[in-house]
Amino acid sequence: MLKLQFSDNHREPVWVVEKLFTIGSQPGNHLVLTHPSVEPVHARLIQENNRFYLKDNNSKSGCFVNEQRVTHKEIVPGDRIRLGTIQIQVLEPGADISGEDENLQWQLVSDNSLLANTSFTLPNDRPVIVGRDNQCDIVLAATYLSRQHTRLEVAGDKVKVTDLSSANGTFINEQPVDSYLASAGDRLRVDIYTFRLVAPDPDAISRARLRATIQSLAKPVERKQADTNPKRWKTRPTSPGNRVETPLPGRPAIAIKWAAIAALAVLVAALVILWFGR
User: What positions does the domain FHA occupy (predicted)?
Assistant: First the structure.
């Protein structure tokens, strides 16, 4: 089994489990790539003795493995496939290069043979549209599937499932629904496709929260720079004999004022004595 992941992450990864897996632009292929550079049946992936081989179906734009054009070549995890202008990376089934931990998000997991071992991640911050229109988030090739069939939106510990006025309805546990809060383990059916809703792994969430806490505690504490300027301490004198008071501008100290008056009185007395002593 191989996992095909688009280099620009514009679509969910695809699991290859069939012995003959077709890729092309027309409905009915196992992997439908609606793009002008991709032909109706562009290539095939053939499984033989647990090995996978990419076989070009005489396409005009060609099949490339690691940027070398091929007609028939074995592919292994790590290879990069290009069909027309579509870039695909070959991964191990458990690998993921999107940078997101799938264990922290809801999964829509196929439980029938039509999309065997295929799962889709439901983002926490936006709804997902399911339908056969190539502008949908999850594109399924089915005759009786509406262009925009169902909307799925994560709502805490539930998933809100809303039927978008589809011609053939949306079913939860085989009951038709217009709007329904589905729980983990519920079975979603649209046309002939059935899926199980799988909740995030609580242990993985706990581990992620623990990592975030550890990272926040490990951040360096920002310390203030030491002040190199000399300190100016303010103290209260203990007694009049231990202090020297500086007179404030415009307000002479009382001691200086009385000293001046005494000096003036002495001067006046001396002048009086001199005057009357003549």
Answer: 21-70, 128-177
Convert the pLDDT of each residue in 169-192 to its tens digit: 999 999 999 999 999 889 999 998
6-56, pLDDT tens digit by residue? 877 667 778 787 789 999 999 888 888 888 999 999 999 998 888 899 999
Which residues, 6 or more positions from 123, have their beta carbon under 8 angstroms from its beta carbon? 105, 154
Note the pLDDT of residue 71: 94
DSSP 76-99: -TT-EEEETTEEEEEE-TT---SS
SS3 262: helix
CB 164 within 8 A of CB 146: yes
Q: Do residues 80 and 65 make contact, with C-beta atoms less than 8 angstroms apart? A: yes
- DSSP 8-state assignment for residue 165: S
Give dist(CA 84, CA 34) in Å, integer.
11
Q: In the β-sheet with 150-155, what is the strand arrangement from edge to edge? A: 138-139, 128-131, 150-155, 158-163, 179-182
Q: How many helices (H) and strands (E) does the chain have?
A: 2, 22
Q: For residue 198, what pLDDT band results from cuts at 50, 70 and 90?
A: confident
Q: Which ranges constitute the DSSP H helices of 26-82?
A: none
Distance in angstroms (rounded) separating the CA atoms of residues 213 and 35: 45
How many other C-beta atoms are found inside a 10 Å radius of the C-beta of residue 10?
8
pLDDT given for residue 110 in this prediction: 85
Tokens at residue 273, please?
């004595």
- Helix/strand/coil (H/E/C) assignment for every residue in 242-260: HCCCCCECCECCHHHHHHH
DSSP letters spanning 130-167: EESSTTSSEE---TT--SS-EEEEEETTEEEEEE-S-S
How far apart are alpha carbons 237 and 111 in whole angstroms?
88
